[in-house]
Amino acid sequence: MDDEDTFKILIATDIHLGYLEKDAVRGNDTFNTFDEILKCAKQNQVDFILLGGDLFHENKPSRRCLHSCISLLRKYCMGDTPILFDVLSDQAVNFSNSKFPWVNYQDENLNISIPVFSVHGNHDDPTGADGLCALDLLSSAGLVNHFGRSQSVERIEISPVLLQKGSTKLALYGIGSIPDERLYRMFVNNQVTMLRPKEDQDQWFNLFTIHQNRSKHGATNYIPEQFLDDFLDLVVWGHEHECLINPSRNEQRLFYVTQPGSSVATSLSPGEAVKKHIGLLRVKGRKMNLQKIPLHTVRQFFIQDLVLSEHPDLFNPDMPKVNQRVEAFCQEKVEAMIEEAERDRLGNPLTPEKPLIRLRVDYSGGFEAFNATRFSQKFVEQVANPKDVVHFIRQKDVGEEGVDFGQLLSHSSTEGLRVEDLVKEYFLTAEKTVQLSLLTEQGMGKAVQEYVDKEEKDAIEELIRYQLEKTQRHLQQRGVLTEEEIDQEVQRMERGGRHLQQRGVLTEEEIDHEGERWG
Amino acid sequence: MDDEDTFKILIATDIHLGYLEKDAVRGNDTFNTFDEILKCAKQNQVDFILLGGDLFHENKPSRRCLHSCISLLRKYCMGDTPILFDVLSDQAVNFSNSKFPWVNYQDENLNISIPVFSVHGNHDDPTGADGLCALDLLSSAGLVNHFGRSQSVERIEISPVLLQKGSTKLALYGIGSIPDERLYRMFVNNQVTMLRPKEDQDQWFNLFTIHQNRSKHGATNYIPEQFLDDFLDLVVWGHEHECLINPSRNEQRLFYVTQPGSSVATSLSPGEAVKKHIGLLRVKGRKMNLQKIPLHTVRQFFIQDLVLSEHPDLFNPDMPKVNQRVEAFCQEKVEAMIEEAERDRLGNPLTPEKPLIRLRVDYSGGFEAFNATRFSQKFVEQVANPKDVVHFIRQKDVGEEGVDFGQLLSHSSTEGLRVEDLVKEYFLTAEKTVQLSLLTEQGMGKAVQEYVDKEEKDAIEELIRYQLEKTQRHLQQRGVLTEEEIDQEVQRMERGGRHLQQRGVLTEEEIDHEGERWG
């Protein structure tokens, strides 16, 4: 099928370059896998690479991360191999945000062998007054073609990049990440328009790339497939990390959806445990074929659930030494998973040695949790996540005991939760008990602003930690114990803060003025 | 003289891209001037551009700054103009730190018309475990040739980049910025070696680029010219911002030194008021010629000193309404400077409209300072620095009244002092009176660490501000007034802090542990 009329497109998404890059064990994972992906594109002599967003994990990637990315793109995507397809659309429209508004392979000063087309994701979206994102550094250097950027926040008109190889015509549509609720509303209000070429409409293969929630996170916090136009042939869905790359047919709209999934596990949840793949898409005329390609450099990840109350034969809370029995059982489970990972890795020299292992233990029903950190530490030589191999959950009585901030914070730092997840979790959990009392509006506002500006990725974590420690020390000092007393104390501290401010050297105006000076 | 044997080299340094980039008036200055410099190189059809360090103001330039820099380099330095000189040295040695260890114009995938060679400065020096600097992002993208990087911190061997154009042989030496004391020591201990080509040594023109203190900041806190080898022909000295571009002869070593100076004023000091230039260096055989080229996009800067006690005819401290007289006189002075700037700008459409104006008023001898901010604000429509047109100094009694933190901090924020200057100034000034009591060792250590890692450029400023505000509020609340009482209060606070820590929920060990978790 590889003839002069067939587009060969390598499809990947959510590569999350730089994820955990400071981790001694996992630090190189994302770069190794990006290397594998680019090498695969080169070996398969694809016409181009299509990325579905979140090439970078951080909105402001570290220098090392940018440097590695630039070097890899220059190594694999530049060279003498001729490009065998043309661009028919108005490139000044397709790439209107770029200072060099044309595809990189047509730039006479660059020798591009594999063009990369990418939309941006929610991790590497445009920010700031200039509306630049990390991809734009790559596009200004001529290494990536960043498409699917909307000019307006009220209305989206998607002008496809029209490509032709031999007799095959491919219309490439894309939307870079937009907050789900907003995009949902725009679809509902008919403010999203996909433009189509005027002539020979039915001869085009219509490929659409989107980076949004596909699974329903809330009434309007996702994009239903049926919102999309039915003239599409294939949708490449980014953002969702579970590999569901085999195209599934939407029976209402009669198009196919492929969800390549991330090429790195950024959380230890079941979806990430599905084996990671990229796709080799062939398009000839209106026909397509998607070949799954397994990624060998991806660290293995095995996850299992254990519900203690479902094993009354093995243990119940009233047994003597039940804790030791549970812990021993968990150890057997973990060791079995490690062995399974070892067998599975045989013959795959590219796969990192230490797997990710997660045992989720539901200890509802009167069981006690043992020390998860100490337990996990036993496997420090065998697993890549020796801080959190075991994770205790309680299906039935979550929330009864109020907020365990220590757990909450430790959780986020070890699992690499995204800050937005942390904040969401904080608000959800904290709502019932302390109702934001620990965080002053001013402090939270400032932290959120800093976070929004993406200048200070740790701003919110730092603030929460600071307030938590301050409060803990204060409460300890006063020997407060009951919940009621805690509430009173917190209110007292708040009043005190306001009081100091009112009486202090600095008036509110002066504080604002100070803030501006230091802004 | 522009023939096939003549190297034409554009020489510039300390461009400080991104300096004050968020300032509404001055934000584009550095980018406009970099544009002018590159345009000038193109118009003069130079063979290459030589930069003396500090291309970037920030160690971690903002996205906008990197994006602008990349775009400008791609715009001006790529194209079809052929490069007419060869590299004779071992490029794997010259560019051993690069993943692409060869000059960019010999890369078959890049069409370079003007190669840029640069050492790094102290503002954009390599940091972190990977030893990367901002220039390395440009070099990985093939836009700059970063040379003069030392592999060792104990010993430097400089292998020159050997270039030949027609019959002219040019040996290009360089050392990227190194802390002055360390480099001084290395020179004294004979640990700096400049390698020379084995054959035809006397046929080479030897050009050396250095980015260090040239003026003596302390016994060993600069590099004396006579430390440099006498086989050199010309030294291009970066780091020093005053334009002293006309080559001066070192009579001991018999080489010449040109100090191009920065292309933007990053402080309102007299050296920065000297008109800014870049150089067009021609080298043919062992002969050279350096043509000064004035920069038209540079914002004008006029500075004047006024010592009140030197005008007993006009005012003395005992006169009635002496303050008004002084202020009126200052206003006349400032207006005269503004007029001078206007006349000077006539016929230079590229020069920004609003000049930088600084009047330094020495009010020693019993005079009072008036409100400098309110005074400066009068010129908001006419000057680019409407917060600090006037600056009060007191030659005779500096330090008598202890530390004015507000002044210190406001000073740094408005004048764009570097953080290291701020810290130095803080320690110098604070030593006598408060002896670091306001800053806990722990806090300062953490902030310094963050600063050293260059991840958090505001860490130290933030800490000082936080401690200052906390202390001010506390002192105000308690109504402390005398210096002795302030000392006592500060000590009490320190003890209290330790006490809380000792009694608190968290032991020191736990705090350390917390710190690690959040590190």
Automatic annotation (TrEMBL), chains A, B:
GO terms for molecular function: 3'-5'-DNA exonuclease activity; manganese ion binding; single-stranded DNA endodeoxyribonuclease activity. Signal peptide: none annotated. Pfam families: Metallophos (PF00149), Mre11_DNA_bind (PF04152). Keywords: Chromosome, DNA damage, DNA repair, Endonuclease, Exonuclease, Hydrolase, Manganese, Meiosis, Metal-binding, Nuclease, Nucleus. SUPFAM superfamilies: Metallo-dependent phosphatases. Belongs to the MRE11/RAD32 family. This is Double-strand break repair protein MRE11. It comes from Oncorhynchus kisutch. The lineage of its organism: Eukaryota, Metazoa, Chordata, Craniata, Vertebrata.
